[in-house]
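The data are quoted verbatim here:
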Amino acid sequence: MFGAATLKSVQRRFSMFPGGTAGAALLLLRVSVAMTLVVDGTANWPSVASSWALLVILLPAFSLIVGLFTPYGAIACGLIQLAFFVESGGSHCFHIAMFFLNCVTVALLGPGAYSVDARMFGLQLLIIPPGNQTGAPSRRFKGRGPRNS
């Protein structure tokens, strides 16, 4: 009895796509990581004048904001910011370290309930129709169904 209640409470607290205040916090974290990347990318990287470089910044940022393939978008944002760090000659170490830490946090925690990922990969209900109770071969398995012993 105690083990079942504990398992149920763990499943409720640590769901794959948390909603409520935890989901809102994850949404804010995703938006802050994406906006930091866009602001740092457009302010500190002079080659953003090309449309391809701007696309490299905006695509993972958009992915994070809407929550589409969130762990991959967070990793991409961290790697782009790491490239900014290397290109700038190592200035703003603390800022880059905190941004990278936030990217890892988003990648590990996931998108939350307010995301496209939650709609695509969230909890789904699988309804299994009742089986053949007579012991006759199932039509579905063409003779490989349950048999009477």
Remarks:
- Helices lie at 2-13, 20-44, 51-66, 70-87, 93-109, 116-121.
- The two ends are 35 Å apart (CA to CA).
- The chain has one domain: 11-121.
- Residues 11-121 form one domain.
